[in-house]
Amino acid sequence: MTRKDSSLSRRHVLAGAAAGAAVGSLGLPAILGAQPAAIKVGILHPVTGPLSYSGTQARAGAQMAIEEINAAGGIKSMGGARLEALLADAQSRPDVGAAEVEKLNEAGAAAIVGPFASGIALATTQAAARHGIPHIVDVGVVDQVVTRGLANTFRFGPGLKTIVDTAIGNLIKINEGAGKPARTVMIVHEESAFGSGMATTLNAELPKHGFEIVETIKHANPTRDFSNIVLRVQARKPDLLIPSNYYDEYVLFARALQQQRVAPKAIYSILGGGASSYKFLKEFPQAASYVMDCNHWFDPRKAQALALKEKTEKRNLFFTYEVFLNYSCVYLLADALERAGNARRDAITAALAASTLDRHVMPYGPTRFVNGQNTGAQPVTTQILDRDIKVIFPLAFASGNVVYPIPERLG
After folding, report:
1. pLDDT of 141 strictly over 90
2. What is the assigned CATH class of domain 161-295+380-397?
3. How far are the Cα atoms of 85, 315, 399 from residue 311, in angstroms, in the given order?
C-alpha cells in the first residue's frame, strides 16, 4: 500500500466513524464496544470409519451444549463470549486423532473435548500435552489415559477399573441373590485397548469370586460375521456371556446369538456398545431382551437429564451415553471458563483441576479430579426390560427389578 493509499484509507475510516457517531446521535442503536472474541473449542471424535456412529452421537451432544450455553448469554465472566466449535474427525484412528490435535492447536483451540475411544484418547491426550491444551476426555476408559502424569488431561467419566469393580460387585449380588445359577463365563471382546484391557482385568478378577472362565475370544474391528464365534459359544455352553464391543459389533453378535438360538443363562455386558442403547432396543427388541450392562448412564431422577433426552429425541437422535457424556463435558468446560475468567490454556487447566461442578445430568457427585480422573463419577447397571432400559443398580435410583436368569429367549 502506498502512502497515498494509506491516507485515503484513514480518511475513509474516519469518515465512517463520524457517520456512525451521527447515526448514534439520531437515536439509532450505537455500537458501544466490540463483542468479546469467541472461545474456540476443539470437538474431536471419530465421525468416519468403524466408530462413526458413536463419534457422530458424541459430536451432537457437545454441539447441543454449546448451543444452549451461547443462547443463555455465553461465558458471563468474559463479557458473554460465545463458544465456537472447531469440529475435528479422528476417522476412528489414533494417528489421525493426534494429527487433528495439531490442527486444532494451530487453529487456536482453548481446549479439546473428546475423542470417545480409548486408543484414540491415548494418542490425542499425549499430543495435546505437548501444547498444553486442556483435554477433557468424554469416555476413553482405559486407565492409562490418566496415569501418565499429563496435567492437562481430565476424564469426566469413570475409568476401567472403577467400572469393572462396580460391574463385578453388582454381578455377584445378582448371582448370589438368585442362588448362584452362573458359574462358568465366556468373554468376547474387540481387539483395541478398550476390549483387550477389559478382558485382561476380567480374567484376573472373576476367578477370585468363584467364576470359571472357559474361553476368551478376541475379534477384529470391524467384524461383520459372528457365526464362528457363536458356534464356539454354543460348544462351550457358558452360564454367563460377557461381551465387550463397540456398537456395530455388539449388535451383530447379539443378533447372531438370537438367530442361532444360543441362549446362556445371562448376558452381562460391561461397557457393551449396544447393551444400553435405545437404538438397539428399538431396531432389534428380541435380541436386546433381558441384556444387562454396566455402563455410563444418565440420572433418571434429574429433570435436566429428562429434558435433554426429550430434546435429543426431537432431533431424531437416540439418547446414548455418547450424547449425554459430551453434553456434560462441555458444561464442565464452560464452568471452568466462568471461574477462570479468560481463555488461556493454563488458566483453564487450573480451573478444571479445581472443579466441583454438580449441575450435570449424570448420577455423579460433584466433580473432583485426582490425577486427572473425576473421582465423583460412577457407572450404573441396566437391564432391557419391557422394551425399555431400566436401571437395576445402584438401588438408590433403580427404575426396574432385575430378571435373572433369563427366561427362555424369544424368537
Report:
1. yes
2. alpha beta
3. 20, 7, 21
Tell me: the pLDDT tens digits for 372-388?
999 999 999 999 999 99
Q: How far apart are CA 3 and CA 62, in angstroms?
A: 49
C-alpha cell at 316: 431424531
- What is the pTM (predicted TM-score) of this model? 0.88
Tell me where in the chain the CATH 3.40.50.2300 domain(s) lie: 39-158+301-374, 161-295+380-397
Size of the chain in residues: 411
Distances (CA, A) of 186 to 206, 238, 394: 11, 6, 25
The CATH superfamily holding the domain 39-158+301-374 is Response regulator (3.40.50.2300)
- Cα 2 to Cα 5, 7, 8, 15, 354: the distances in Å are 5, 9, 10, 20, 53
Average pLDDT value over all residues in the chain: 91
Q: 224-250: b or e for each residue (b if 16 or more CB lie within 10 Å)? A: eebeebbeebeeeebbbbbbbbbbbbb
Cα-Cα-Cα-Cα dihedral sign, residues 8, 13, 14, 16 = positive
pLDDT at 153 over 60: yes
